[in-house]
Amino acid sequence: MAHGSPRARRGVYAVCALLMLSLTSFGHAHAADRGMPDPATAATLAGESAHAQRMRTHFPDGSGSNQRTPPVIPEFEQDPDPSGVIATFQPNGPTQTDQNAFFQNLGTNNRTCFTCHQPEDGWTVSARHAQERFNTDRNDPLFRLVDGATCPSDDLSTPGKRRKAFDLLLKKGLFRIGLPMPSSTSLQFQILSVDDPYNCNTNSTTGLTSPTAGIVSSYRRPLPATNLGFLSTIMWDGREPSLFSQAVDATLGHAQASAAPSAAQQQQIVTFEGCTTADTPSLCASTRASAGLFTAQVADNDAGSLAAAGASGGPVAVAQQLANFFIGINDPLANNPENIPFTSIIFNLYDAWANLPDRDDGPDARRAIARGQQVFNTVPINITDVGGLNDALNQPSISGFCGTCHDTPNAGNHSVKAPLNIGIANAGSSAPPVLDISGLPVFTVWCTKGPLAGKIFQVTDIGRATITGQCADIGKLKGPILRGLAARAPYFHNGSAATLSDLVEFYDQRFSIGLTDQQKSDLVAFLNSL
Asked: How many degrees, rounded to 5, is the angle at CA 424 between CA 421 and CA 426?
């Protein structure tokens, strides 16, 4: 049963209805279409790979050092992180890295999938470990001109210039994503100007060739390559139709391979990561519920084991949770045959810690995590000015909760395909509060066609509109899976929240929630425990 007042429930159900409609915004979800991109997306993917290959020709930077890889990824791996210990669980047992293409050099620059997806960072790259790797070996394969640098044309001739070239990767864990402008037949906007400190978008060799053509460079965090069975869409902008497609494009792009990985190599990569609902079941070596990687925080510096005293933290519980997951699981209008109503109670991991006896070890820290879970689940939020919600519903205000958007049970991402703009990509007078968007290019975008004709946007990332060409999609991106947050700072797609405290403060100010200092502290403790 949905929680909150009748008005709040009506607002949540309205959101559910909209999210069902938004399935089409990220592409059709029908089984017959799985793994097959629509023409606009196919053109984007082809243009992205072609751009990476051109950059290899124009700006070669050599192969550098080899990727350092352990011989085995164990069935249960634990690594320290700033908040405690993060762990990865493989239900199918350990992986011999020399027998899986995820760990093999398939390209021309010594990169592997493992280069940017490592277990101690929640299977992505943290800014702190990027800095450590740079200080240890400046030729580490992480640091390649094609996308690790602010622009492929960057000068690497001196140590100081090399550090400057990889500034965004070192400070915010950002990679350059170079995507072609959509075709003129679907394009509803022009880029009037770009304030680009790296001259990457304004150089015709690396960027735009006109207001409506060329390459748009945005800077984004790499998404985790774990817990992928919960995904409702792949990549921040939803451009990849399947993990098989993503494996091909990452190899051609990030690794600058001269040829796509073979079908067998693609299968090895996807089997290791774990299949998603977008991947054809017959191509998966095992069921989604028993294959791949599952990652979560397993211990907290203050609270100790996150699976103690009746709690269910850690990656084993995540793997068990996936057995019950399906697209639309917490949305009655989105592929929910049982018509189960929405509930804002997204997480129940720490219910047992709400009333611990005083004799329990670390009770204060554990109670704080339980209180933070309650804040996430039950504190009302007045949702305003969210592109894809308020405008589409023509409702200036929608009553909701954290779980209105982060609705997948015990995972926290969208259970349906729902690109939204909550303002993280905004710039200029509408720049987001608290967040640090310094160092990012600012695009001034003018809508020339469609319902928003005449409107001007200022954004640091054009978002989903780079694929669709639609003004309504400017700044829209997906919400990520929330497990393993403690290991993978900074946060949001552009690394603009350095800490989880910054993230919480952004939401509090952005939506005028009115959280107390205690609620903010408790919510941070809870997010660190995921």
From this structure: 85
